[in-house]
Amino acid sequence: MNKKIIDFLKNTPQVYAESDGAFWDDEHISKHMLAAHLNPDCDNASRKQDGIINSVNWIEKLCDGGSNKKLLDLGCGPGIYAEMLAAKGFQVTGIDFSKRSIDYAVESSQKKNLDIIYHYQNYLNIDYREEFDVVILIYCDLGVLSPENRRILLNKIYRALKPGGMLVLDVFHEPYIKSFEEMQSVSYEQNGFWSPEAYVVMQRNQFYEESNNTLEQYLVITEEHCKCYNIWNQIYSKEFLEKEVTETGLTLVNFFDDVQGKEYTGLEETICGVFRK
Ligand SMILES: C[S@@+](CC[C@H](N)C(=O)[O-])C[C@H]1O[C@@H](n2cnc3c(N)ncnc32)[C@H](O)[C@@H]1O
Fold it and tell me: Which atom of ligand 1 has the smallest separation from the CA of 138?
């Protein structure tokens, strides 16, 4: 354990070095994440409710309505978008590797009598062929993945789309760097976000200029354990996003400032890309 602490303080990790454990699917952490998803005024896990409603309305418009359209929601969380899209007539399949979120989503759709298919699965393992009219990947999830995993996922999305099908995704955009603060901190919690036991958390925020990556790194130390969580993000320019996605064979339809359809200015911290097969 001492070695881990020394390593944390001595070295910054290689870009996209993996975490010690599942973050989204951790028994304790996922409870806090689910609560954050379901809080309409919090944007830690899902966007705030007003933003989600705007996104769903915009996606419906982009698709000329939802009826008879099959939509794949990658990283669907507890199904907030999935339910609103299903209510608009989309036939929705949601995939997420948080068991807690998927269990919640299944129960909620049953209560609301919505016909949504959910899978507890890593979306890097999907294997669909020309099944979907629309694929969505919302809340900057692409840039969390390493370049190799992004290539794998984008190729799988290409295969999953019907000819003419559409991909809608958002990622962090260059202006985000201005608000990202490098820092290090140490704090003690009795029972908090990272563990039900008392713990010390050491945090480091680091910007990797050469590759345009941000890292939020947390070393969580309890009496018995020491785990390191690395949350990576790729910061995109519009050219970089276009290159990465169109390498699969998809073509660019348009860029927007956000996944609510705000016209592209290039000044916002996110960029949304719409692509077609
Ligand atoms: C930032 S949240 C966004 C959730 C949802 N798209 C929204 O905006 O409300 C990321 C979600 O993606 C899921 N996720 C991350 N990586 C995944 C993977 N490789 N396979 C499946 N789900 C994944 C997480 O469990 C989490 O629910």
Answer: 6
Top mutation candidate among 32, 141, 145, 171 for ligand 1, by most atoms within 8 Å of CB = 141
**Chain length of the chain:** 277
Mean pLDDT of 253-259: 98
* Axis-axis angle for helices 29-38, 99-111 (nearest 10): 40
What is the topology classification, in CATH, of domain 29-173+235-276? Rossmann fold (3.40.50)
Angstrom CA distances, 207 to 127, 193, 203, 210, stand at: 34, 24, 13, 9
- Distance, CA of 123 to CA of 98 (rounded, Å): 11
Nearest-CA residue for ligand 1 atom 2 is 45
Beta strands in 103-223 (DSSP E): 117-120, 132-137, 161-173, 183-189, 199-208, 213-221
* Structure token pair of residue 238: 């519009």
18-54, pLDDT tens digit by residue? 999 888 999 999 999 999 999 999 999 999 999 999 9
